[in-house]
Amino acid sequence: MVQYAHLDASFAALSDATRRGVLEQLGRGDASITDLAEKFHMTLTGMKKHVGILEQAGLVATQKIGRVRTCKLGPRQLAEETAWIEAYRALWASRFDALDNLIEELKQKEKTDGRKRKA
Amino acid sequence: MAANEKRDPASPTNVERKSDRDLVVTRTFNAPLRIVFEAWTKPELFQRWWAPKSFGITFISCQMDVRTGGNYRMELGHPSSEKPMAFFGRYIEVIPNARIVWTNDEGSEEGPVTTVTFEERGNETLVVFHDRYPSKETLDAAIASQATSGFGQQFEQLDALLAA
Question: Chain A within 8 Å of B162 (Cβ-Cβ)?
C-alpha cells in the first residue's frame, strides 16, 4: 500500500500546472524558492506550498544553505535516467543479438568455404 | 570442431554511464576479431544488424567509407515518421581490426564522438562502444529529451484523465 500512497502523492503533485512548470524550470538548473516565486509571479508562501508538495512526492529535493533554500530535481527524477539507460541497453541488446546471428552465419560460411577449398 | 556444436547463449550487453559525459556499451562475441570487424565495416553487413527489426527501424540507404577521413551517411525509416531519419558524420580514425572513431553530425548541436574498440580474447572478441559527449549538459540533454518526452506524454494523459 505504501507504493499506492506514493503514486497518489505524485499524481497530486503533477496535477497542477505551476508545479509542472517548476519541474521543467528545475530541469534547466537549480533555483531558490525566491527565484521560483518570482518566475511564477507568486508569493513566497504560495511557492513554498507547491515545493512542499513536490518534495513529498520525491520529485524535488531542497537544501537550506544559510538563509536560502535551494531546490533541485529529486530522486524520482534520477529514476528517469535509470529508465533511459535501461531503454538504451534494450536497443543495444537487440542490435547485438542481430550482430551475433550475423557473425554466426559468417563463421559457418567461412567453415563451409574452407572445406570446399580443401576438397 | 563438430558440426552440431551447440551455440553458447548470448553474452550480456552492458551499458554504463562512466562519467558525466561518457556512455559505454560492451559485449563479447564468440568469433574471431576479423569477422566481427568485418560486420562493423562492410555496409551490406552493417545494415543487417544496426537497425533492430523489433524496433521497427529499416535501412533506406547506407554509405560508409570506412577509412580515416572518410564519411558515412545512413537513412533509416520508421513507421512513425514520414521522412527518413538521416545520420551522418566522418571517420576520425580507422585502425583495421582494432579501432574505429567517428563523429555524429546530424544533430543541431555538437554530437558525441563514438569510439569502437575490438579486442581478441582467446576465441572471443570484446567490443567496446563508447560515446563521449562534448559536455555533461549535452549528455544530460540527450537523456532528458527522451525522458521528458515520456514525461510530457504522462502529463497529457493525466490532463485528459483529470478533465474527464
Answer: yes
Specify which residues B120 forms β-bridges with.
B125
Q: What is the pLDDT of residues B138-164, one digit of tens each?
A: 887 777 665 444 333 434 444 444 444
Residues A63-94: tens digit of each pLDDT: 998 888 999 988 776 676 777 787 788 889 88
d(C-alpha A47, C-alpha A69), whole Å: 12
- Which grid coordinates are listed for B38? 568485418
Q: Looking up cell 562512466, which residue turns up?
A: B18
Among candidate residues B113, B114, B109, B105, the one with its CA nearest the CA of residue B141? B109
How far apart (Å, rounded) are the C-alpha atoms in residues B110 and B92? 15
CB contact under 8 A, A92 and B27: yes
- Return the amino acid letter for A94: S
Q: For B123, which DSSP code?
A: T
Calpha distance B137→A10 (Å, rounded): 26
Alpha carbons B146 and B137: distance in angstroms, whole number: 14
Grid coordinates belonging to B151? 514525461
Q: What is the pTM of this model?
A: 0.67
Angle, to 10 degrees, between the axis of helix B136-163 and the axis of helix A17-28?
A: 170
CA B42 to chain centre: 16
From chain A, pick out residues whose CB is under 8 angstroms from the CB of B146.
84, 87
pLDDT in tens, B88-118: 999 999 999 999 999 999 887 789 999 999 9
Predicted-complex ipTM score: 0.79
Q: Nearest CA of chain A to the CA of B133: how many Å? A: 15
